[in-house]
Input
Amino acid sequence: MTFLIVSGLSGSGKSIALQALEDMGFYCIDNLPAALLPHFARQIMESGRDELRNAAVGIDARTHRFLDALPTGLAQLESIGLSYRIIFLEAEESVLVTRFKATRRKHPLTRRGIPLLDGIRQEKALLVPLSANAALRVDTTHTTPHELRHLVNNFARSDNTEGMTLMFESFGFKNGTPLDADFVFDVRCLPNPYWEADLRKLTGLDPPVMAFLEKDKRVQAMFGQLCDFLENWLPSFEAEHRSYMTIALGCTGGQHRSVYLVKRLAEYFSRKGVNAQVRHRELA
Output
């Protein structure tokens, strides 16, 4: 069976993630106290019902009084032989503050007179046992609801594929580094098509930009060395039971160089039988 735990910071999109899983046929329960996690898991495992073979639970700071029991609950899941994976959602503090002010919702940790920003930081600390062990971390700072649903769907489906799933993500440093990346590579040292008037409004997916970059030896060297690095080290991460990794490549605006290299890397590893996924953050 597939058993997912969806968690993250309040305002980061957990409801959207759970709705996406529910639409896929997952049996979902939101706001489950951590102490009840092993009991719920046993009921699912012992039921033998096909409609419960895929299940997901939402655990977050709304049940902060029970979060002390979380490490014990996760250990009990392993002791009963249930393999679980954690999806953890986060976003930049300024974005979370803006979202709460826009919706006029109260943060679950501000009810005792705690300022909103302090509540967000306390929440981060409370959820460390989940964030530190997440199989998928998603930074929703620049992510639309449609994109988030797509990312969650792809992750849930990856249970049916062998080996590690690689998410190749392009981004622009001017908009901040992704919080969810396992590896971040800076490709701003490569020639920039932005300074070519005919290429400025195009992206790394357009043939003229691809041709411009492909003729440069530095671009080819960067691509080859990235392939070598990942091929050398990914087996070691697989040996540590990592099933999902995000490889982020950044250039200045996230339009040309990083987009081109992400496309090429995904194609390269796909040809080798790897489940490679692509996200162009700034093109969304």
The two ends are 33 Å apart (CA to CA).
